Amino acid sequence: MGTKHRTFSRTFSSKFLSFRYSTILTLFILFTVLFLLLSPLRHIREQFILAEQLRFNGDLRDTKFPWNKLCFGPTFEKLKLAVFSKTWPIGAAPGGMERHAYTLYNALAAKGHEVHVFTVPSDRKPHQDIHDDNLHVYFAANDHGSVNISLAFDNFHQVDANGGFDYVHTESVSLPHWRAKLVPNVAVTWHGIWYEIMHSKLFQELLSNPDGKLPGPMTDLQEAIPRLVDEIRFFRSYNQHICISKSAGEDLINIYQLPPRNVHVILNGVDEAEFVPDPEAGLRFRKKHGIPGNVSVVMGVAGRLVRDKGHPLLFEAFSSIARRHPSVFLLVAGSGPWGRRYSQLGPNVKVLGALEPSELSHFYDALDLFVNPTMRPQGLDLTLIEAMHCGKPVLTPNYPSIVGTVLVDEGFGYTFSPNVNSFVEALESAIRDGPYILQRKGMACKEYALSMFTATKMASAYERFFLCMKNTRYCQYPLPTDC
After folding, report:
1. Residue 386 reports pLDDT greater than 50
2. Domain that holds residue 326
3. Which of 77, 83, 270, 480 has its CA 20 to 30 A from that of 417?
């Protein structure tokens, strides 16, 4: 009996332990699933920036990652900055570079720095110079409305004579390289380099002539290499180089052969108070523009409706999607020749035209998915990060400038190779996931955008950069005043 009792006890204990472990395991899996569903990627900001932020200690000129990942504290030293910019936004529908310039220099001026911008109005019409507290904008246009660099340089010297500039900054080649040689302290921010543009021309050739059956020489591609060689040669006319994507920074070091300490990555940012999730505003936007209430997924695209922005690609891909998924809707915001073509796709597409800047955030709020079909693998498209700030996932080509800087995790959206078949597959994947998963991905996008792509972080990084270039004491990180 004793043996039988011990056997029963061992059997009971074994079954009880097995049941207990099985129950614990089941509960663990259940709570894990609930955690992932209810709190998707809630610590995503720390995942992407905390490790590097805590690890880095040294000279900022040695960083191998975007300066936006660091947290810079307040400074009491004020700068006098000269800026050469291609255009200054006036009126509706400003371009990406114009919005970047407006956001950055207003933010630096708000920090107490004296900023002088030499440029022309974006609407190519006569305007008075702008003097708004610390921000001064001087318009110097030629007969065609472009920058008259001689006049702009004269204005620059007049302001410089009344107290020298601490540093000079140019947006791309707004200050041409032959003029940059005459300026001792100059930095350039590249919004696109010819090495990336060359890839763009390659993709466009493959899209427009996939089988090589069209006659005639590939003029753009034939001219690309000489242009690239010329650009590599004159880039050394600028002292310091700022790139807006990690891949461009790597190209300037590896292809353009610039010293690593002269190449820095500072990502673009947008006003985080302007682009915020607002579901109610999104519903009002849908109602205003007649979006049916029974649609399954609302996609959207924004920008100039021209060829190199990828609209032939989107037109073909969405034509296929519309036939198979009649409940999927596409909103098209922007103006250009492809607007008329989109109207041919029937009731699944609504062409909105150019939106006022104040409407852009509500446009993003109305979407389930933001689509960027661009054929230009250069720069950092502001529409992507604006949509992410509004809590929307993105679908975009798998260019290094995007995948290495913006879509750094598959939880943020979808990528495709720049051809119709790959594009359709990515769209199908997003449609299969549906609004719930798209919403989860969108919230992850918002968290990452807040950690990297804000006007505040961008302005702080540029501020520290200019201070570092003026006084190497500011090149050390962290300083006692840093976060």
Report:
1. yes
2. 279-453
3. 270
